[in-house]
């Protein structure tokens, strides 16, 4: 935390931290980092791609402004991701670029499955149950 705080200046507008590292297993303390960012008026983003299926992340409680995930970690097609933006209170799915029409068709046909899997693991989806 001290190192991050030293790196932040008045020109810092965004801090981006990987929540959980899939190779060495480190997990960042989003609450502390988020509090630091809020205190300095800096937006806070976390890449939760490799952790959102393994640990809870309640975007209503953790002080993050932006969260991104990728479908490939839940066996979804490459090129699909999702993000949460606190300012809009919404979750948006994004499609990447494709090399062939077959790739594009595969992604479009399986998007519904990915959305279903995201709803199953999302804390926001549990409210409706």
Automatic annotation (TrEMBL):
The lineage of its organism: Bacteria, Bacillati, Bacillota, Clostridia, Eubacteriales. Keywords: Aminotransferase, Transferase. It comes from Acetobacterium tundrae. This is Aminotransferase class V-fold PLP-dependent enzyme. InterPro entries: Aminotrans_V_dom, PyrdxlP-dep_Trfase, PyrdxlP-dep_Trfase_major. The keyword Transferase applies. Its cofactor is pyridoxal 5'-phosphate. SUPFAM superfamilies: PLP-dependent transferases (SSF53383). It catalyses: (sulfur carrier)-H + L-cysteine = (sulfur carrier)-SH + L-alanine. The keyword Transferase applies. It holds the Pfam family Aminotran_5.
